[in-house]
């Protein structure tokens, strides 16, 4: 199940407040022992939490550090969109919050990890983006910052022989 709600609110001339809320949940049915990796939720990148590279947010394998996805997702994004130069160059200030969680019972609004193995917390990030409208479609660049406690984004070191 994936539920999305998006709204746009004009604030004065040429300024728009946009927000997006997403909730996703996967439950296994039948004889599957667990949800396959390819079917799980992943987060990070330009369409979810912009403080992470593509698919790098959320639960990870504790030995290798690789993303393993989750069975639940809760994500909220707020943007203020405004003109910069002319009609084709626009700016965006944004705040992203949320994460992919191990399962629906682990959804949390905490903003900090309890331990290095805890990935069930809501990551927050803020940033600035530039949008350029071209005849074949928009070009965008987003720059994001996530203030986290020291070590909270560190991954376990891979085991080497």
Radius of gyration: 18 Å
Q: List the strand order in the largest sheet.
A: 1-2-3-4-5-6
Q: What gross morphology would you assign?
A: elongated
Strand content: 35-45%
Order of helices and strands: EEEEEE
How many strands, which pairing sense, and closed or not: the largest β-sheet? 6 strands, antiparallel
**Helix-residue proportion:** under 10%
Integer average pLDDT:
84
The secondary structure category is mainly beta
Strand element count: 6
The low-confidence parts are 149-161
Number of helices in the DSSP assignment: 0
Distance between the termini: 42 Å
Characterise the protein shown here:
Residues 149-161 have low confidence and may be disordered. Strand 5 and strand 6 form a beta hairpin. The radius of gyration is 18 Å and the shape is elongated. The chain has a 6-stranded antiparallel sheet, with no helix packed on it. 0% of the residues lie in helices and 42% in strands. The chain is an all-beta fold and 161 residues long.
Give keywords.
161 residues, mainly beta, 6-stranded antiparallel beta sheet, elongated
Précis, in short:
This protein is mainly β and 161 residues long. The protein has strands at 2-10, 16-25, 72-85, 89-101, 123-134, 137-145.
Layout of SSEs?
Layout: E1 2-10, E2 16-25, E3 72-85, E4 89-101, E5 123-134, E6 137-145
Antiparallel strand pairs: 1-2, 2-3, 3-4, 4-5, 5-6
């Amino acid at each position: 199940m994936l539920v999305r709600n998006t709204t746009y609110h004009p604030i004065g001339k040429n300024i728009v407040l946009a927000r997006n809320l997403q909730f996703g949940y996967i439950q296994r049915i039948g004889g599957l022992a667990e949800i396959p990796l390819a079917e799980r939720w992943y987060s990070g990148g330009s369409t979810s939490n912009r403080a992470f590279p593509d698919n790098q947010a959320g639960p990870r394998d504790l030995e290798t550090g690789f993303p393993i996805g989750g069975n639940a997702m809760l994500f909220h994004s707020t943007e203020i969109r405004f003109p910069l130069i002319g009609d084709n160059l626009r700016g965006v200030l944004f705040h992203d919050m949320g994460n992919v969680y191990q399962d629906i019972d682990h959804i949390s609004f905490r903003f900090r990890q309890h331990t290095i193995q805890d990935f069930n917390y809501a990551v927050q990030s803020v940033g600035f983006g530039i949008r350029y409208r071209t005849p074949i479609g928009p070009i965008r660049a987003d720059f994001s910052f996530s203030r986290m406690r020291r070590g909270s984004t560190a991954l376990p070191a891979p085991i080497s022989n």
